[in-house]
Structure formats: C-alpha cells, structure tokens
Amino acid sequence: MDRQKVRDRILEIGIVPVVRASSPGEARIAADAVCQGGIPIVEITMTVPGALEVIRELAKNNSSDVLVGAGTVLNREAARRCLDAGAQFLVSPGLNLQTVEFAVREEKLMMAGALTPTEVITAWEAGADFVKVFPCGQVGGAKYIKALKGPLPQVPLVPTGGVNLNTAAEFIEAGAAALGIGGELVQADALRSNKPEVIVENARKFLAIVTKARAQMGTAAKGSH
After folding, report:
1. What percentage of the chain exceeds 70 in pLDDT?
2. Where does the pLDDT of residue 189 fall: very low under 50, low under 70, confident under 90, or very high at 90 and above?
3. Is 146 a member of any domain?
4. Residue 132 falls in the annotated catalytic set
5. Does a structural domain hold residue 223?
6. CATH number of the domain enclosing 57
7. Is residue 26 annotated as part of the catalytic site, yes or no?
8. pLDDT tens-digit series, residues 99-139
9. In a domain, 225, yes or no
10. I need a surface site. Which of 57, 154, 181, 199 has the fewest CB within 10 A?
C-alpha cells in the first residue's frame, strides 16, 4: 500500500489504535482484537518487547487490508529498522526532523509528534502527513485541537492522550483528522486477563462514535488535503 493509500485509510477509519503491551504475544492479541472490532490499523510501539518481530510477523501474516505501523519511533535509525521490518507508517511522540525527512525520502507515511503551534508548523513544513498532538489531554484536549485548527486548518491533526469514549466525539467535532487511542482502547488488564473481546467491543464503540460525530458534521474526510 503506497503512502497516499495509507493516508486515505487512516482518514477513512479515523482511529489509530496504539498498542503498548508487555509481551509480543499480548501485542499480537491486541492487533487481532482491534481488527476484529473493525479497525484495520494497528500501531505497534517500540516499547513493546520484540516490537520489530511483532511488526514483521503482522506485516507478513496479515492481508494487505491491515495497516501495520510503528510507534514511539524516536530517531532515524529506529525508523529504518521499522521500515525494514515491514511497517507501513511511522509515528513519533515528539518532533525529530531527521526522522520526518527520512520518511519523506523513503515515501512512507509519517505521523510526527508535536505539541506547540511552532512544532506543529515545523512538522507539517518538513513533510509530515499527519501531526500527532501529544500529550493532548494534558493541555486542554478537544479545546486545544480546536484552537490549533483555527490558524492551521490545512494541517491534519491526530490528538493522542486524553481520547476516551467520553471525549472522542468532541475531538472529531474540534477538527481532528483521526484519533490516536492507546490504553482506553487496548486495555492492559484485558490483555493481562486474556479477554480480547473487551478490546473488540471497545474498537466497535470508538468506531461508532467517530462515524456518528462525522455524520453530524456532514463531512467524512475532514482533514484530508
């Protein structure tokens, strides 16, 4: 799947499940569960033990319908290893311009982390496809996204941190292109107690909220450019 198709898929689904797990097995269970719940996208963070192996396995085993990305990519070297393992998109928690430039050169989708307006603009100008606003919940949540969208309507923002079943609709209404959702979707206790059905159900609930919020706004592709 090329960069444009990856971008389109993320915009269409509107949710990027962030998988943080304490073992490769848990990460695989989480990936399967979000897919079963209707979200064919999974971001495996580099904090997962054996993350590269998990990405390699998921990329190989899954049909081309499932987007497998790498999260918590801190530098260019890590980005290279993730792409070699088969990651189709890269996500960073903060702004590392070398990583963004590397992704652009490799023609891979980059979701660069940023928090301040200056960082958001810098990430966008460097060629990031999406700007992940992190940690969003700690700086005002949906209100902060709305404030950023005022002067920067052209930048597709993906709030991460603070997105839950109660706030998801507000983030979409504030202009978020998609939502990065970690522990509120991929719950650690559900993984620990081997209850993937909890994650499947969470995925369905979040999807329903995004779909409804977008329908009420009368546009399905907010944030596309």
Report:
1. 96
2. very high
3. yes
4. yes
5. no
6. 3.20.20.70
7. no
8. 999 999 999 999 999 999 999 999 999 999 999 999 999 99
9. no
10. 154
Residue 34: inside a domain: yes
Mean pLDDT of the chain, nearest integer = 95
Report how many domains make up the chain. 1
8 Å CB contact between 25 and 49: no
Which one of the listed residues 26, 43, 57, 184 is annotated catalytic? Answer: 43
Using alpha carbons, select from 175, 161, 167 the residue that is nearest to residue 224. Answer: 175
List alpha helices for the chain, DSSP H.
Answer: 3-13, 24-36, 51-61, 76-85, 97-105, 117-126, 142-149, 168-173, 188-192, 196-217
Question: In b/e form, how buried is each residue of 93-104, taking b as 16+ CB within 10 angstroms?
Answer: bebbeebbebbb
Domain that holds residue 169: 3-217
Burial of 45 (0-12, 13-18, 19+ CB in 10 A): buried
> One of 26, 57, 132, 222 is an active-site residue; which one?
132
- Residue 159's DSSP bridge partners are 133
Whether 109 contacts 7, CB under 8 Å: yes
What is the model's pLDDT at position 8? 97
pLDDT attached to residue 219: 53
